[in-house]
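Running this now, will post back.
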Amino acid sequence: MPPEVEGPALLQACWAGTWVFTAIAILTTAFPDPMAVPIAVVSLGLLAIGCWAMLWAFQRALQRSRYELIGVGGLYFLAGCAPRSVRLSMMAALAVQFIVALAAASVRPFTASAFGILVPVYALGLSGAWGARHGTFPPRLPDGTNSERGDPNRNGDDV
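Update: finished.
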């Protein structure tokens, strides 16, 4: 990751959570009974952090949306609002979390490994936090219209 990228702490936190979860998921797959509580605690903790980050990002995006055009794809998936390296890093962490969770739950169905399915909310939440804090979005046009959606006073009834 280039040193000039904004928000490196969010990227590092995302990957740290991903590696902690991956290690716990591997141990839980190998030793399901003694690792049931740790996988549940880690998974629920990452879920809680991810939910908080998503809500914070949404609140921040609402404030910014008065002046900028912010879409869900840009905010949470960093489409068009983040440098390529940031988007790839965050989406790679999301993919790793999803694949590890699915693999662990598939290998040990009906065990505490199923808690891992909740973990990808962590990467989505931190991606949203990065987008809300550091993302660049196009400005709203001063006359109240925007080029992507047309005139907001029209409801599409007149054909």
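The radius of gyration is 19 Å. More later if anyone needs it.
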